[in-house]
Amino acid sequence: MVHVTGESRYQRLLMAPSLDEIVAAEHPVRVIDAFVATLDLRDLKFGKVEAESTGRPPYHPGDLLKLYIYGYLNQMRSSRRLERECVRNLEVHWLVNRITPAFKTIADFRRDHVAAITGVCRAFMQFCRGQSLYGGELVAIDGSKIEAVASRKKVLTPALLEKRAAALDAKIAEYLAAMDEADRQEAATEAGPTDVARALAVLQAKRDTVQAQAKALAGAGLSQTVTSEPDARLMKTARHGHQVAYNAQSAVDGKHGLIAAFDLTRDCNDQTQLLPMAQAAKESLAVETLTVVADTGYSNGTQGQACAEAGITAVVPRQTVVNPKNADLFSRDAFTYDPARDCWTCPAGEILTLVSVSQPEQKNTYATPACAACAIKVQCTRGKRRKVTRHFHEDAREAMHRRAVEDPGWMQRRRELVEHPFGIIKWMMGYPRFLLRGRRKAKAELALMVLAFNLKRTITTRGVPLLLAALQPTPAGP
Question: What average pLDDT does the chain have?
Answer without folding.
Answer: 90
